[in-house]
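Q: My labmate handed me this sequence with no annotations at all. I'd like to see what the chain might look like in three dimensions before we decide whether it's worth expressing. Could you predict it?
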Amino acid sequence: MKSTLSLIITFVSCMTMSSAQTDQNTLFAEIHRLEHEYGGRLGFMAKNLGTGEVVRYNADERFPTASVIKLPVMAAFYHLADEKAVDPEEEVELTEKDRKPGAILEYLSAGTTMTLRDAVTLMITLSDNTASNLVLDRLAAAHSERMALVNEFLVSKGLRNTRILNRLYTVETKQQTGEAYRYGIGVSTPEDMILFLQSLYDTTLVSPASCAEMMKTLERQTFHDMMPRLLPSEECTAFRIFNKAGSINESKVDVGLVLSDKANLAVAIFVDKHPAHGEETENIAMLFVAHVARAIWNHYTGMTGYGRAVKAADVDWNLVPGGRWAIYRSPAAPFPHPDRMNGYARKDTTYPAFPHYLDSSVVVFVPNGFHETAQGSNAIVHYHGHNNDNLGVLERYTMPQQMVLHRTNALLVIPQGPYRARDSFGGKVEDPGGFERLVSDVMLTMQREGVVKSAKVNHVIVSAHSGGYHPAAFTLHQGGMIDRVSDVFLFDAFYGEQEYFRDWLLGGTGRLFGCYTEHLKQEHQDFERELAPTVGDRLRFTATTVEHDEVIQHFFGPWLEQLGPEWCMPATQHE
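A: Here is what I predict for the chain of 575 residues:
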């Protein structure tokens, strides 16, 4: 009969296993959701290097490696360096025949020299294909010997399914085998890559000194569009990542070590048979890898979601004629919002949460000569319309240029609404006090960036085009800071919520400017007929024959001209 202590140990052990299984069930439910959303064939394996817990999904299936095969090449190189069979400081010369597409060496002149160590660095950090061949060619005399040397090294380390199959961009050496046809330059499994990473972490892959060199090189990796992309390094007191990515046609791969105060992880993610062939930043297959990496991170750390904390320094400034504009991510931006976390379905289409409702960016334009007054800074907050985004406003509607032309002393603020969707929902700016939180965050950010000394706000204009009417209306209804709103600009944007515009006009002294095309004629005329006798020239509606998408360009400048002197900077300051 078991002792009471052993029964307790057995019970606790079973409870722990049950809890771990529940956690893994949660992870795989999320993985299946991501797989359904993004498509492609997924395989991954991850290991908590502290606890030993492993999660795996198609981990023993073989996948094309793309450029991740360069990781075993680097290891084989350092293995030979440990045996004094190659010298990392040996200089190699680039020849015309060596140059292959990819990264930097293809553009350098024949006769350029570098050390083998530098070639290894380029092979990993820039994934340079020419550098990769330069390294491979120094491992042995003949091509077949080089392939065999790398593959035999991998077998000696227990990697049963990882093989380099060819020199890069060298059709003449490609083997006439099904494996070579199917996988290209290399083949591996998530399982093999975790074994490789564990050995690197334990400094048993090659000598400890060479493992340290490999880690140093991997940490200088320049490709961060996949595994590192959504990992919340800003929320860690210690965070380092050592990864190698690969991408070719339908295959996207990223493997690496993630070492932090939250957890130390080895992660290998492979996606194949994905129709998104490109290598652009927003490639959906790359985003799939990024989201799987974050789901794994969340599983091991207890964190949730896919957002990253943003530091004040994460503000990107761009100089333009007449001023500069910034883009940054704000916790007070309209999105993400709970009401769109599962996307949005219309009768004619469905907009998933990504990419339509996860963009928290805010654009701020600062004209040259802008200055805050003793009462604070002026701001124009513009809500864009359907099928648009905040950078699209910059590109298409010349709002900053018109502010420069009319010497407007104000910040232009363009929060991201529904990204390129036919949706008028304003997210968090429609919540009670949401507008005030957005403007306050913008001003605090501008204060940190040295644009203003004080975060105080003087006057605000609420501006909206087309579907932006909805957040504009709710801004006036319950957004807070209403005592600061001096004017409202509506650019063919009077589709509904007229009672909120009516209440704002009747409850204060502000002005409402509006222009409209034929399709909104009745709404504007009815409103004007009702309110004009009471509010007089504070209501200024103008019919127009210009196209709906051209009203901002046509009316924004003239309306700026009608603002009071507190909105205009002296010519000397502007110049």
